[in-house]
Predict the structure.
Amino acid sequence: MDREALKKSAEDIVQIKIRFEVARFASATFREVGIELNLIGHKLCSDPPDRMSPSGRDDIIVAISMLCLIASELVSASADLISDGRRYAGSALIRQLVEVEYLAWAFETKNEEAARWLRSTRGERKRFFTPEKLREAAGNEFRSLDYGYHCELGGHPTPGAWLLLKDDSLVGQLMLSDCLGHAGRIWNHIGGWARSHAYGASVLARSFEMSELYSRWMKIDLLTKLPQAPEFPNNW
């Protein structure tokens, strides 16, 4: 897809509308699930002691709830910032969303990782839960180029950030579409966790509606057809 076709897609009212619709719905769903799981996690004080932390909570469920609440704020705030033209700030939040995706993968893959993360010290997080460590543990699940791309464009102050500071609607819509992609993968990992966990019903109850909306978005939004790339062309 050449730049002209990309620009047409980015400026299409129908496609813009569904991008923001998905962002609002995903954010609201993450928040609802996060609140429900947090309540469940703090009510399970009657469970066997080996499943409970000293604070009287189910740390696995509370950790998942926190991840959902963080994802909710990052998705909605990114969409809001992109909507009003603050693309650099929106991109910085999407970089954090990538890190949430790594954690969601870890929590799905090994249930106890969620509790270990919640109880971790800063030193333990540096040893086990940095983006680099999680990518290593995930093997080929994530591309380091993708994370580096987000760091260059919004995660750190770099000259390449100029791309986001220009008044270019195409770049903003590309970032929003990318944001939705990461949010969808986070939801898939949370769903994978829920399918193997006794208290995952609040996630599973919303899976069909989320899946239906995401399927509709991917059919309408032509920007989702773009292949992954490590960086935008320099001449944009």
User: Anything to note?
Assistant: Residues 38 and 62 are 5 Å apart (CA to CA). Residues 46-52, 230-236 have pLDDT under 50 and may be disordered. The first helix runs from residue 3 to 11. DSSP finds eleven helices and no strands in the chain.
